[in-house]
């Protein structure tokens, strides 16, 4: 039985990474989507084990001490991290594991798992990203500007990834990711 592969997927905010991954998962079998742990309280409608694993700050720091995270970070007073055990277990069971990760987390994971396949989802252009973010009508002008500035900085990291997928059309971008997964599965079979 083949081992699964770890896929790190990153993108600037507003690039449609969640939408593209939903389209990918609708067409894939034998995959596991990694659920991060956090010390923040659940928001209305969020479920433990689905959106996040909600744990105490003490428990989180104990896991850090025991090297139980592939990556972690503190953001706005709360910790967020990718637990190592479910990723390792699923890879051994032959499942491909998908991690939806920020750029900083990508770098931490690549250090610990250099064999992981990294995919950067990019917008067709910064102008299109701005149009999409404005279309949401969910943020103040100041927050929108901040997101765009951060996105522009994050785009500079695209060259560090194994693959860059432009999300100009969701189904096409999802198809490209599926092709990447299939190519990696086939290369494992031929060894």
Provide a descriptive summary of the structure in words.
It contains seven helices and nine strands. Strands 2-7-1-8-9 form a five-stranded parallel β-sheet, sandwiched between helices. The chain has a four-stranded mixed β-sheet with strand order 4-3-6-5. The longest helix has 20 residues, at 170-189. It is α/β, with parallel strands linked by helices and 191 residues long. The two termini are 13 Å apart. A hairpin with a 2-residue loop joins β5 (69-75) and β6 (78-83).
Strand percentage: 15-25%
- Gap between N and C termini: 13 Å
Q: How are the strands of the largest sheet arranged?
A: 2-7-1-8-9
Instruction: Name the structural class.
Output: alpha/beta
Rg over alpha carbons: 17 Å
Unreliable parts: none
Mean pLDDT: 92
Element order: H for helix, E for strand: EHEEEHEEHEHEHHEH
Task: Kindly report the oligomeric state of this protein.
Answer: single chain
Total E-strand runs:
9
Helix content: 40-55%
**Number of continuous helical runs:** 7
Largest sheet: 5 strands, parallel
> What gross morphology would you assign?
globular
Tell me briefly what this model is.
This protein is α/β, with parallel strands linked by helices and 191 residues long. It is built from seven helices and nine strands. The strands form two sheets. Strands 2-7-1-8-9 form a five-stranded parallel beta sheet, sandwiched between helices. Strands 4-3-6-5 form a four-stranded mixed beta sheet.
């Amino acid at each position: 039985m083949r081992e699964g592969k770890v896929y790190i997927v990153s993108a600037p905010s507003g690039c449609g990474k969640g939408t593209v991954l939903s389209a990918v998962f609708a067409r894939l079998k034998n995959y596991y989507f990694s659920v991060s742990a956090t010390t923040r309280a659940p928001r209305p409608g969020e479920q433990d084990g689905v959106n996040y694993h909600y744990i105490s700050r003490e428990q989180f720091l104990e896991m850090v001490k025991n090297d139980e995270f592939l990556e972690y970070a503190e953001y706005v007073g709360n910790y967020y991290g990718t637990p190592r055990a479910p990723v390792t277990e699923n890879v051994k069971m032959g499942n491909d594991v998908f991690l939806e990760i920020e750029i900083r987390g990508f770098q931490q994971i690549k250090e610990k798992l250099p064999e992981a396949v990294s995919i950067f989802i990019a917008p067709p252009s910064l102008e299109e990203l701005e149009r999409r973010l404005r279309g949401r009508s969910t943020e103040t002008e100041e927050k929108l500007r901040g997101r765009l500035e951060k996105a522009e900085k994050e785009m500079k990291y695209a060259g560090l990834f194994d693959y860059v997928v432009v999300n100009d059309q969701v189904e096409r971008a999802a198809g490209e990711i599926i092709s990447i997964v299939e190519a990696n599965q086939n290369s494992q079979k031929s060894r």
